[in-house]
Amino acid sequence: MDKERETLLAWRERMRQELDQVMAFWTEHSHDRVHGGFLTCLGQDGQVYDDLKYVWLQGRQVWMYCRLYRKIERFHRPELLDAAKAGGDFLLRHARVTPAEKKCAFVLTRDGSPVKVQRTIFSECFYTMAMDELWRATGDTCYRREALAMMEQLTHWVREDPSGLGRPQLPGATRAEPLAVPMMLLCLVEQFSEADAELATRYAELGDWCVHRILQHVQREGTAVLENVAEDGGELAGCLGRQQNPGHAMEAGWFLLSYASRKGDSKLQAHIIEKFLLLPFHSGWDPEHGGLFYFQDADGLCPTQLEWAMKLWWPHSEAMIAFLMGYSATGDPALLRLFCQVAEYTFRQFRDPKYGEWFGYLNREGKVALTIKGGPFKGCFHVPRCLAMCEEMLDALLNRAS
Amino acid sequence: MDKERETLLAWRERMRQELDQVMAFWTEHSHDRVHGGFLTCLGQDGQVYDDLKYVWLQGRQVWMYCRLYRKIERFHRPELLDAAKAGGDFLLRHARVTPAEKKCAFVLTRDGSPVKVQRTIFSECFYTMAMDELWRATGDTCYRREALAMMEQLTHWVREDPSGLGRPQLPGATRAEPLAVPMMLLCLVEQFSEADAELATRYAELGDWCVHRILQHVQREGTAVLENVAEDGGELAGCLGRQQNPGHAMEAGWFLLSYASRKGDSKLQAHIIEKFLLLPFHSGWDPEHGGLFYFQDADGLCPTQLEWAMKLWWPHSEAMIAFLMGYSATGDPALLRLFCQVAEYTFRQFRDPKYGEWFGYLNREGKVALTIKGGPFKGCFHVPRCLAMCEEMLDALLNRAS
Questions:
Q1: Using one digit for the tens of pLDDT, what is the confidence trace for B180-189?
Q2: What is the predicted ipTM?
């Protein structure tokens, strides 16, 4: 057995075990058996420390449960599907602020009253992902109708008229495009297009548009991925324009790799690996303590985000997916080595062998800064998505090799 | 010379020198000679890294310049007043989002176009402080008229109808009162009442109301100051209800001490020292590394704010003012010792002997985490206000003793 195969086998085993432990944490601690949905504000040992329900995290957990139920045999368990359906029904009943409109709340009380609304599209994106997966897992077309209706609203907000989001257009505000917007829409295009030729055709042009927009974030003659750019592709002034988020660029990277692979576009693939994987990794990896910085400034100035040098769980999860996908697509051993470098750091620093799941927030030196396992922005999503995707990719690599 | 007097003398000298150096930093680097107002996004050496103008910081710097000009002889310099007037005129021309209304922007472009509006009262509070000080420094009644008109609007928003702030009242949102709201209104009442019997009378009831509201933040049978409480004085559920900010409690503490001293209420004074100075200090001081935590949870759980364990400049500035004011009022040597403990840590960890001004953001261990001297939330305010107030209080203590 060669060295590379040994590496792949060892990581598949680690991913599989870790995924089981992580999912056990969420199924044990997060189900709200009274109102449906999920309690995601969980301390180190899984104790609920707040019962607010963040719509991003509700949608993501529904999506994750359905995805695992559909894709990995050992998770094809009725209790996962039941919890996902209870979560989906909670969202259907409560997520929209006004029943007649599509705008969703950002956070709800435990029983579903809206607490806060964000003037962005992300609650609605995760709502849409949840509904489409529920349709795929249950076959119930009410979920799909909901997903498609929300998708129509989302594309309207992004491509035609954002005024329904409620943010006033002030004369001094440049219309900046955050990387997250075309990235999330591309994610939804991929979601709808899975095994559905009709929708793949319907959303093909939108997918191309998203990719065009994401690629516009490569700036400064190809030397930097910037988090926010002008809608015409120019660099924005000030901190906003110089802001970089290496993990986010790598997350966009693997969405782009999926797209390039679907298109069979190897030139695009090479461009993505260079600009969205290697470039942010090399700028973003802390040479002193290891791990990926959260924010950087393209001119090397000090970012203004207090947490810029902290090491967060999700950029590491996304980097693992990106490098393993890059390696799967190219067979380049350098990408496997980078996958191993990130994965070793991540498994060593973020895992909690005592209670399961991962810590989310380490300081620059890699020490746990927040002991929570879930909170307003961390739920059952990045970690299990990473582990499940890595397990699947490693399976495919090992099957291909044998 | 006794030991205590020696301590006071030494600190007065340090405060005076430090204030001169800090003010030299701002006068050298922050004046916008093209548009008026101040550039506050300044790197370690004073270089401008962004030219956005945050209205809080514009108002605060105008206030600070006028205050120093009025109160400390060596700052009675025309260039300070000229810069303050240019800042005030910039605010008059540009701060309001719509000229006919009172709502101010949170951030403007360098030439004054609104970029973002916050749905809170704080831009307007600092605008009001600036205008009242400008009136006091210049005698020009147009500033005072502006200050009084905005004050009327502020009390209307806080005590009668907040709907003009633009935040939708959602059914799941409990009407929480942040400590900052009555604290800032009390600060404005003190501002207007200085040497003005008529306004002191007009705002007496409002001042009493603010104090009543601030005291309601002492919860759990007097064992904790909570950052947010229900309007009826009850504790709120979840993280929001348990949130503590020790430096903020101490800042409220010295506003309350001023009020108690004006009223000659020594019982209230003792209560404030116990609850708003000693309690937050003892819970908030990091026993391992020194310095004040930024956020805490009243149940001792992990806060969800990523920066909770960081050491920020302003809680330390406010604690210094609070302990020295407490000592001035009572003569209790324990309060002088606490002042020295905080001031020693602060001068050792936050000062930048190389370029002047203070770093704003240290990690838990006290290492500089952000090298910026100014940014979206740090300008020419907490540091010089602390140094000037401490210098004045030390002067008074030394004069009293001799």
A1: 999 999 999 9
A2: 0.95
